[in-house]
Amino acid sequence: YTGKSGSQLLTEKLKKITVQEYQSIPVVVHEESSVYDAISSMFLEDVGTLFVVNKKSALVGVLSRKDLLRASIGKQDLESLPVSIIMTRMPNITVCEKDDLIMEVANKLIEKQIDALPVVKKRKSGDYEVIGRVTKTNITKLLVDLSHDQLI
Ligand code: ADP
User: Fold this and answer.
1) Which of 2, 33, 65, 71 could bond to 37 as cystine, CB 3.0-4.6 Å?
2) Is the pLDDT confidence value at 152 over 50?
3) CB atoms near residue 129 (< 10 Å)
């Protein structure tokens, strides 16, 4: 018996869990896509956040549900409005890497008041390839998994 309390064991366990164990598949749209197509992708792929990439597949932006709603209540033609006009763009994007601690991501989601982070891999050119997605749902899944654990 280690003499450690349940909460000490939980903290130790949490500090070992990395992004790659709880990430989902990212859904990306091209920067020249229309807002109309982005809305279609969001429904078809059943996600709340889309990542925007350029021709080199580098991360250039993020689109949330509200970004798309905001654009939709304007008078603009959604089929001719490129997502690059309305997205949140680099370098103002909060990202994570596969070996980061999942708790660091949870902190970023709360601090920045956002729903998702792209999991990226830095390329030699300095830009980011999008390899995954971590959302509040992934963090909730982690919580459920921990509650099934014998430790607690
Ligand atoms: P919603 O706007 O639908 O509530 P979010 O809370 O995720 O969804 O997004 C809030 C704002 O933050 C949006 O303008 C969105 O573009 C932006 N955003 C979302 N995710 C990120 C991120 N990882 N980095 C920077 N900005 C983001």
Assistant:
1) 33
2) no
3) 16
